[in-house]
Amino acid sequence: MSKLVPQEVIENNIFLIRGRRVMIDRDLAKLYRVETKYLNRQVRRNIDRFPNEFMFRLSVNEKKELVTKCHRFNMLKHSTSLPYAFTEYGVLMLANVIKGAIAIKMSVAIVRVFVRLREMAVIHADIRIKVETMEKKYDHQFRVVFQAIRRLLEPPLAKPKPRIGFHP
User: Fold this and answer.
1) Overall domain count for the chain
2) Is the Cβ–Cβ distance between 127 and 146 less than 8 Å?
């Protein structure tokens, strides 16, 4: 299965939108080796299999943000249609809708990546809890060490984006 596509490629196609890890229909179609319109047609034909927890359409603002972040979505910039975003369960359901051995193997590989990302998040939370319990247990002499560890565990702050264009 790893011969189809490396895990890093799948990981780079996963975005965090609306607080969920999702993949965009165009990326999935490329991984499944089908056209995007075929993938979306199969989804529309089997729409009962894709509730809101499995799939949703991006809003106009979400689409603009996606195009801004990733250059591979530049073709969406002037498109009138909004792309679909599939969660882990939606990707799994796509294997039932899109027929073929490649689709099944790719779905399994994608779900494995989603599971690995979830496990990493749990491990990260466990480390944070252990550091907090150790901090309560030991003296204040290690305060600086615990503060440094806590800063490492926090997600990086979003840097303010510089304004583009002429500034009077």
Assistant:
1) 1
2) no
Q: Return the number of other C-beta atoms located less than 10 Å from residue 122's C-beta.
A: 9
* Per-residue pLDDT tens listing for the chain (168 residues): 446 677 777 778 888 888 888 888 888 888 888 888 888 899 999 998 898 888 999 888 888 888 888 777 777 777 778 888 998 888 888 878 887 777 777 777 777 777 777 777 667 667 777 777 766 666 666 666 667 776 776 666 666 777 777 777
Residue 85: helix, strand or coil by DSSP? Answer: strand
**Is the residue at 153 inside a domain?**
no
Cβ–Cβ under 8 Å, residues 131 and 150: yes
Q: Which token pair is 3?
A: 């011969």
Q: pTM, whole model, 2 decimals?
A: 0.64
Determine the structural domain holding residue 48 and report its residue range: 7-120
